[in-house]
Amino acid sequence: MSQKEFSEGDWRRLIASFGEDPDRPGLVETPARVTKAWKHWTSGYGQDPVELLKAFEDGAEQYNELIVVRGIPVYSHCEHHLAPFFGKATVGYVPNGKIVGLSKLTRLVDCFAKRLQVQERMTMQIANALMEVLEPKAVGVVVKCRHLCMESRGIRTPGEETVTSAMLGELQPNLAMRTEFLALAREN
């Protein structure tokens, strides 16, 4: 194990630092469970967005309208407090001869969500990856999340959503296309 890895012993020390007994029956297995959970929650670092977005050209040459997937689950952790934030993303693009499997958009969101994040950067990372790999005419991303760092400490504002968006390519200057994307992104 490298010195950089956080071990079960480190989790035991953290539990003890709270004044708890890490050998208490309810906590004995916690360090192993937390180690496994954090490996999952940060598994996005081991994924390559370019590999996730392998495009194909079959059938896309004729299609030039928005393709939108909405309701994509977002589960992430803020880099400031390591507190969870969660919600949904909408990802859309106008192809330029290449399309990607719809499940790949969900995987792309998950890849960036499973890193220590701020919502604003994650939104741009998703949009930029799509723009760079697919080279579409336009990309739009809207992310709506609740942040436990806001809800459970500090200002304590339960239920508030933070909404971020990224509009690239033709979505920036084309008001009609932008309006259509935002209407499609809106949940009923």
TrEMBL record:
The EC number(s) this enzyme carries: 3.5.4.16
One matching Pfam family: GTP_cyclohydroI
Catalytic class of the enzyme: hydrolase
Location of the GTP cyclohydrolase I domain: 10-185
GO cellular component: cytoplasm
InterPro entries in alphabetical order: GTP-CH-I_C/QueF, GTP-CH-I_N, GTP_CycHdrlase_I, GTP_CycHdrlase_I_CS, GTP_CycHdrlase_I_dom
GO BP: any one term: tetrahydrofolate biosynthetic process
Listed pathway(s): Cofactor biosynthesis; 7,8-dihydroneopterin triphosphate biosynthesis; 7,8-dihydroneopterin triphosphate from GTP: step 1/1
Domain of life: Bacteria
GO MF term list: GTP binding; GTP cyclohydrolase I activity; zinc ion binding
Binding site for Zn(2+): 78, 81, 149
Keywords: GTP-binding, Hydrolase, Metal-binding, Nucleotide-binding, One-carbon metabolism, Zinc
Swiss-Prot/TrEMBL catalytic activity: GTP + H2O = 7,8-dihydroneopterin 3'-triphosphate + formate + H(+)
Subunit structure: Homopolymer.
Family recorded in the similarity comment: Belongs to the GTP cyclohydrolase I family.
Stored HAMAP family: FolE (MF_00223)
NCBIfam families: folE (TIGR00063), PRK09347.1-2 (NF006825), PRK09347.1-3 (NF006826)
Protein name according to UniProt: GTP cyclohydrolase 1
Provenance organism: Rugamonas aquatica
